[in-house]
Design brief:
With 462 residues, this protein is α/β, with parallel strands linked by helices. It has 2 domains: 29-182, 2-Layer Sandwich (Enolase-like, domain 1), CATH 3.30.390.10; 185-449, TIM Barrel (Alpha-Beta Barrel). Helix content is 37%, strand content 19%. The chain has helices at residues 7-10, 87-90, 92-97, 100-118, 126-144, 152-158, 160-173, 210-218, 234-252, 278-290, 328-337, 351-363, 377-387, 405-408, 412-416, 438-443, 452-457; strands spanning 20-21, 24-25, 36-56, 59-73, 78-84, 122-123, 197-201, 203-204, 224-227, 267-270, 297-301, 319-321, 341-344, 368-370, 399-402, 433-435. The strands form 4 sheets. The protein has a 7-stranded parallel beta sheet. A 4-stranded antiparallel beta sheet has the order 5-4-3-6. The protein is globular, with a radius of gyration of 21 Å.
Length: 462
């Protein structure tokens, strides 16, 4: 396997924040910008209920907090970023040991702490600024969560709104109006495509009936994310997962699509680290072979806990890293272990960190796609800006974007109204894809436009 950043492994300069790749500072390449001084910061949040308990990682969420971060510069410009908090995804132990509201409050406190670190600080480079603050926020999180092994993604998730606000402020101060001009030169190789369409991937959680999966297929969805790793012991989990896959394959195994070479629907299974051994996963794969579903498995995402640092190159399925690829350093480590895809989450690990991960994967010929965090409609567009520019996914030929908010938020249609471009055709899924035209790329999905709803949330703070 070729590792193009040869000094990466040897370098002793790799920090907790991953601020160096060998001798190459990861922030090199950001367009030279003016010095921006942050003079005011503020935050707020809303609690959005879900339609039904949302199950994965053996747990269930019932609401998702939408946090907001406002940052104002010395010149008087202010920008607002948003975040959809996911405690269960970012650290399942924090979710399990606190009430749902308690876990959300801890992450929100970290958002507030991160904003506090910014007040009075000057910057020219958003990536470098995130690298400066996120390790401090992580250390703060360890203290308030009373958890020394707090997962890094918990800190990164808490800073999504902050990082987005920083990028928007940077863009405004430097007269940048399109996403392409926002991408630092160092990361452009990984984000150079302009797809005309990308797959819209719905999520089929434990509680979604197979009839609903069949209905989604009939509506044109051809690439669906299916949660496995169900609650129970390892034996109970495996039995449930095998039964689930059998049911699904019986229902949609014969469906056809024009987006794959063999015309069959690809299967995307997400285990969220629930499998405790390679043997157990191989038993699931052998079952897929037995029922004739093996050739349709495109991805198995994050089958093992990140602490299981095992070589998986002998597993005959493309295994993708998600939670375990906290930073570009972690992504490279997973690639060396045999992971053959990376799930990017600009809406969970920050845009700044995601671009670094994407570039590391690109340099090692590992394909990427964009996974969701059940985020709000505006954050879907942030994620879409990444998915639209990634290299085509092998066997599919287009980019991939998971978005499942419409399946899970009780007030999704209300939330869609917060997006200034909600009626644009490229904001709608049609026949399982998002069609991206010149209007989409000129507007960058509308992320640079202020949202009246979120502006109102800070009416007395601007």
């Amino acid at each position: 396997m070729t590792i193009t950043r040869r000094d990466f492994i040897k370098s002793s300069a790799i920090t907790a924040g991953g601020t160096m790749l060998g001798h190459l500072p990861v922030s090199v390449g950001t367009a030279a910008g003016k010095v921006i001084k942050i003079t005011e910061v503020s935050s707020n949040f809303e609690r959005e209920p879900l339609i039904r308990p949302f199950g994965f990682k053996g747990g269930y969420m019932r609401e998702i907090w939408q946090s907001m971060a406002l940052i104002k510069s010395e010149s008087g410009i202010h920008k607002i970023g948003t975040c959809s908090q996911s405690i269960l995804w970012s650290d399942a132990q924090v979710f399990a040991t606190h009430s749902e509201s308690g876990g959300n409050a801890l992450m929100y406190a970290m958002t507030e702490y991160g904003l506090g670190l910014l007040k009075g600080r000057s910057f020219t480079d958003p990536v470098a600024l995130l690298d400066e603050i996120w390790p401090e926020v992580w250390e703060y999180g360890k203290k308030i969560c009373a958890k020394e092994d707090l997962r890094q993604t918990f800190a990164l998730n808490s800073l999504v709104a902050v990082d987005n606000a920083i990028w928007l402020l940077y863009a405004a101060e430097n007269n940048i109006t399109v996403f392409d001009d926002l991408i630092p030169a160092a990361f452009k190789p990984a984000l150079s495509h302009h797809h005309k369409s990308i797959a819209s991937i719905p999520l089929m959680a434990y509680s979604i009936p197979v009839a609903d999966i069949k209905a989604a297929s009939d509506q044109g969805y051809f690439f669906m994310k299916i949660k496995i790793g169900q609650p129970g012991t390892q034996a109970e989990m495996l039995e449930k997962d095998m039964a689930r896959i059998t049911e699904i394959h019986k229902s949609i195994g014969d469906a056809r699509t024009s987006h794959t070479k063999n015309g069959k629907l690809p299967y995307y299974f997400d285990a969220n680290g629930r499998y405790e051994s390679k043997d157990t996963l191989m038993r699931l794969i052998d079952h897929a072979k037995k029922i004739g579903a093996f050739d349709q498995i495109a991805i198995i995402e994050e089958p093992f806990d990140e602490k299981m640092e095992i070589d998986i190159r002998d597993i005959p399925v493309r295994i993708a890293a998600d939670e375990s690829a906290h930073t570009e350093k972690d992504a490279l480590k997973r690639i060396q272990m045999g992971y053959r895809a990376i799930a990017l989450k600009a809406i969970a690990k920050t845009l700044s960190m995601t671009m670094k991960i994407a570039q590391t994967a690109h340099e090692n010929n590992v394909p990427c796609f964009c996974a969701d965090l059940t985020v709000n409609p505006i954050l879907v567009e942030w994620n879409k800006n990444i998915a639209a520019r990634l290299s085509p996914f092998p066997g599919i030929g287009i980019g991939l974007l998971e978005t499942n908010g419409h399946q899970n938020y009780r007030n999704w249609e209300v939330m869609r109204g917060y997006n200034p471009c909600k009626d644009s055709q490229w904001a709608q899924t049609r026949n399982g894809v998002f069609e991206l035209d010149d209007d989409y790329y000129s507007k960058s999905g509308g992320i640079f436009m202020p949202s009246p709803h979120y502006e109102e949330m800070f009416a007395n703070k601007k």
